[in-house]
Amino acid sequence: MQAEMQHVHVSNVDEAVEQPSQAQAVQRVYSQFEKPTGLRGRVAGWRMAQRRSNRERNVWAVSLLELQPTDRVLEIGFGPGLAIALMSEVVTGGHVVGIDHSEMMLQQAKKRNASAIEQGRVQLLLASASELPAGHGQYDKCLMVNVFHCWDKPDEVLRRVQWQMNPGGKVVIAFQPSVQGPTGEDTLKAGHTILERVKVAGFSKAHLEIKSMAPDSVACVVGMKE
Question: Which of 12, 46, 135, 174 is deepest in the core (most CB within 10 A)?
């Protein structure tokens, strides 16, 4: 697909080089939500924590896990720690582990979940999805919210997650297309793509749920390891 040409009227070549395109500006914004860093990253984390749509998305995704008090839970890409806080309220006798590749998000999530961390019920680590520690049968539930598109090798991550899940373990992957003005068709198509990959990774019992939320609908793939 050829990139759309953007015509910019400037007085000289240097000015043309310095003036960022709209696409570049949008990409910089999206990059801060994928891996927040610096001042812009701090603002991005604050927005993720405060936006009503983000809270609603996390509440819905967590509800699909059907958590039990003694569950061992993993979240990949915990961001500012909203879902970690929700899960630790239910998982009072188990353990909640989260990994994220952003130092900024680690700081914010630790602050938000300080009490549960101090009690030993929550552990937050600085790591990427590709750095999941090798192990078998460590978790009962796994949550991923708007991180699937950030991975270079999503199928490899899913296989590793499947290996770490106990029999009967459940994975929930919530996703909104990272495009400007996504349609319901975009969400449905992305959801089905993730669904097929989840099945191939070994979660044979898997289905797709779509929920209408402002400003865009959300896809959730729910998979179970037999």
Answer: 174
Residues whose CB is less than 8 angstroms from the CB of residue 206 and which lie 6 or more positions away in sequence, other chains included: 195, 198, 199, 221, 222, 223, 224
Of the candidates 206, 184, 204, the residue with the CA atom closest to the CA atom of residue 195: 206
Q: Helices marked H in the chain — which ranges?
A: 13-18, 22-34, 38-50, 52-65, 82-90, 103-112, 114-118, 154-164, 184-200
Residue 190 · residue 177 · CB < 8 Å: yes
Q: How far apart are the C-alpha atoms of 53 and 56, rounded to whole Å? A: 5
**What would the pLDDT profile of 179-195 be if each residue is shown by its tens digit?**
667 788 999 999 999 99
CATH fit for domain 52-224, picks 1.10.860.10, 3.20.20.140, 3.40.50.150, 3.90.550.10: 3.40.50.150
41 alpha-carbon distance from chain centroid = 16
Predicted TM-score (pTM) of this structure? 0.78
With contact defined as beta carbons under 8 Å apart, do 80 and 45 qualify?
yes
CA distance 185 to 155: 23
